[in-house]
Automatic annotation (TrEMBL):
It is found in: Cell membrane. SUPFAM superfamilies: MetI-like. One of its GO terms (cellular component) is plasma membrane. This is Peptide/nickel transport system permease protein. It is a multi-pass membrane protein. Keywords: Cell membrane, Membrane, Transmembrane, Transmembrane helix, Transport. The chain crosses the membrane at residues 20-47, 122-143, 155-178, 220-239, 278-304, 324-347. PROSITE patterns: ABC_TM1. It comes from the Bacteria. Residues 116-347 form the ABC transmembrane type-1 domain. GO terms for molecular function: dipeptide transmembrane transporter activity. PANTHER family: D,D-DIPEPTIDE TRANSPORT SYSTEM PERMEASE PROTEIN DDPB-RELATED, DIPEPTIDE TRANSPORT SYSTEM PERMEASE PROTEIN DPPB-RELATED. It comes from Paenochrobactrum gallinarii.
Amino acid sequence: MTTHEIIEDGEVERELSPALQFFAAAARLIISVAITLLGLVTLTFFISRLLPLDPIIAMLGDNISQETYDIMYRKLGLDQPLIVQYGMYIKNALMFDFGQALTSGRPVLEDIARVFPATIELATVAIVIGTAFGIPLGVYSAMYRNSLLDHSVRIISLFGYSTPNFWLGLMALIIFYAKLDWIGGPGRIDFIYEYAFESKTGFMLLDTAMQGQWEAFSNAFSHIIMPALILAFGSMAYISRMTRGFMIEQLNQEYIITARVKGLSWPRTVWGHAFRNVAVQVVTIVALSYAFLLEGAVLTETIFAWPGFGRYLTNALMAGDMNAVVGCTLLIGILFVAINLISDLLYRVFDPRTR
């Protein structure tokens, strides 16, 4: 029987082998990612051309001669038609060549590789803390709905949503650093410890621990804990609120009543049955929260002088450094695409029905 006859008879059969199904799904995924990244590159190109910033003036200053201006204008390819400039832009982007950053004089990719580990380290500590507190608070808030615990969690979540990070950062520095001296100040580590260890990975906590430099590790931890807690507070508020909503919906289902009638304890019913059914949704929320933290906690990094991605992007915007801005924008897009792909893979781990 041919495929046409199967369709006519209304029968649904999987004629492709598992290997072919896998390659077909992988091809669709690659095409989807390629289209997304192409759209992002195209968008950043035209935005960079529409902004009222002269890259030559930003690079050389406004005191250059007309002759120097014209030479640089041709060197950058700005005398070419827009479609030719777009083709050159796509070619350079495919080779991860975003030009030189005006603020540092180094290649943009080299700058990003230098500052991004600091943001990854800060975001990872923050998301671990936010997830460790946010998920249990959301679950227990749904378990004991309209109780004192539930109202407290909702108030904390509202406070986490509405309080500006820059205000929390300033208050934390005034109270815990300037007054109580409980935490380290701005930056990633005190100057006296900067050369006490070798930076191999770019992650100070990991490098100091691997090399047994525990005093430097303690100092680096004292610097990261407060900005991480501030970022974790916002993530915890979001994760707990969303987890609570997912759990309330599940706890109203009939299978929960059936489990209780059969004598299953309330905690076991909640954690063993209801939470398993919302695990996929919770994973998505955590992944998105992590993506937003990696995008660059601009205000927090600025307040704490954290030499990360967000601070680098802010300085590039203030200086009109479009090479750095475009490179950072593309990286943000790639991060969101990658984290969404990881979320899709985790779907298959937690929910066999999606395999």
